[in-house]
Write a structure and sequence with these properties.
- Pfam families: HNH_2 (PF13391).
- Keywords: Endonuclease, Hydrolase, Nuclease.
- One of its GO terms (molecular function) is endonuclease activity.
- It comes from Desulfobulbus oligotrophicus.
- By secondary structure, this protein is of the alpha+beta class.
- The protein has ten helices and twelve strands.
- Strands 2-5-4-3-1-8 form a six-stranded mixed sheet. A two-stranded antiparallel sheet has the order 6-7.
- The longest helix has 15 residues.
- The chain starts with a strand and ends with a helix.
Length: 303
C-alpha cells in the first residue's frame, strides 16, 4: 500500500463525487491499485473544468479519505471508479508550495528548483508517508489547535521540520479517524464558510467567550453514512438544527427552505429568513450539494 494524491476539478470532467468516489481512466489504474487500503489526498488544480481556458482553481490540497476499492465503469470503456470512506476536508486549503517548500517533492525540478510541469500533468501521483503527514498537518492546523491538550505541542510549519517525524506527527492519522476530532474539523470548516451565521435565520450570536453559538449540522447524518464534507453541512442555530435533524424543515435544490406544514407554530416560523431562502456561502463549491439535499428530503423531511 502507498498513499496518493488524486486531482479533481471544481466542475469535474469525470463522474467524481470526491466524498464517495473518484472516476478515472485506465491510464492510472496501476497507481491507484497501489493505494487501495491506504489514504489519499485530493488536489484542486488551476482549471475548474474541462475547458482548457478555465481558471480559478485553488491549486491546493483540500481533503483526505481512505481508498476502499476499485470497480470497472461498465458504461465508459477503460474507465474505473475508486470508492473512498472517512472523507474529511481540511479546515483550510493547502497550496502545493509555500515559499520554496513543495509539499510533493516530485513537483520540484531538481536542476533549478522550479515547478516540474510534467509531474503536475499527472492526475494521480503517489507520495511517501512523510509528505502525506505534512500536508495533513498543514491542512488541519486550526482543528489541531482546537483539540490539542496541555500535554501536547502545537505543530510547527512543515519547512521547519527536520528529517525525523515526531510522535505528534506520526499520530495524526490516528487522530483524524477519531470521531471527536472529525466533529471539530467539520465544525471549524462549516462555521467558517457560513461566517458563523445561521443559514436559515440569519442569526449570528457570539458568546461572552468570543465563541459563535451557531452549530455545524450534517445534511445526510453521519449515522446514515453522511460524509464530513462542507457540501454535506450547513450552519444552523441550536433550535433550527434540532428541527432540521427531525425533519421539520428541509432544503430544496434551489436553496429555498421547506417547512413541514402544521408541525411548527407561527412563532418558530417567524424565526426563518423572510424570503424563505438560505443564506449561502459566497463560494459556490462549498454550498450544499444536491446529492445530500435530496437524501434529507427523501429520508428525513416530514413535509
Amino acid at each position: 500500500m502507498t498513499k496518493a494524491v488524486l486531482t479533481t476539478k471544481v466542475n469535474p470532467t469525470y463522474d467524481d463525487l470526491p466524498e464517495e468516489r473518484y472516476h478515472f481512466p485506465g491510464t492510472y489504474l496501476g497507481q491507484i491499485e497501489k493505494a487501495i487500503g491506504d489514504w489519499i489526498i485530493y488536489y484542486e488544480p488551476r482549471r475548474i473544468s474541462g475547458d482548457l481556458s478555465s481558471r480559478g482553481g485553488r491549486q491546493s490540497y483540500f481533503a483526505t479519505a481512505r481508498l476502499l476499492s476499485i470497480e470497472r465503469d461498465h458504461i465508459h470503456k477503460n474507465h474505473y471508479y475508486a470508492f473512498v470512506a472517512d472523507y474529511l476536508e481540511f479546515d483550510h486549503a493547502v497550496p502545493f508550495k509555500e515559499g520554496h517548500h513543495y509539499y510533493e517533492s516530485s513537483l520540484q525540478r531538481k536542476n533549478d528548483g522550479k515547478t516540474n510541469r510534467g509531474a503536475f500533468g499527472r492526475a494521480v501521483r503517489l507520495i511517501p508517508d512523510k509528505e502525506y503527514d505534512l500536508i495533513l498537518q498543514a491542512g488541519f492546523t486550526k482543528s489541531l489547535e482546537a483539540t490539542v491538550d496541555e500535554n501536547q505541542t502545537l505543530p510547527v510549519t512543515p519547512y521547519e521540520l527536520g528529517e525525523e517525524m515526531t510522535h505528534y506527527e506520526r499520530s495524526i492519522i490516528e487522530r483524524i479517524v477519531a470521531r471527536p476530532f472529525r466533529d471539530v474539523a467539520f465544525a471549524v470548516s462549516v462555521k467558517e464558510v457560513y461566517q458563523d451565521t445561521c443559514a436559515m435565520t440569519g442569526l449570528k450570536i457570539i458568546n461572552g467567550g468570543g465563541r459563535a453559538e451557531v452549530q455545524a449540522a450534517h445534511i445526510q447524518p453521519v449515522s446514515q453514512n453522511g460524509p464530513d464534507s462542507i457540501r454535506n453541512g450547513i450552519a444552523l442555530s441550536g433550535t433550527v438544527h434540532w428541527m432540521f435533524d427531525r425533519g421539520l424543515v428541509s432544503i430544496d435544490d434551489d436553496y429555498s427552505i421547506l417547512v413541514a406544514m402544521d408541525r411548527l407554530p407561527d412563532t418558530v416560523m417567524r424565526l426563518l429568513n423572510e424570503n424563505r431562502r438560505l443564506i449561502l456561502p459566497p463560494r459556490t463549491d462549498v454550498r450544499p450539494h444536491r446529492h445530500y439535499l435530496n437524501y434529507h428530503r427523501e429520508n428525513i423531511f416530514k413535509g
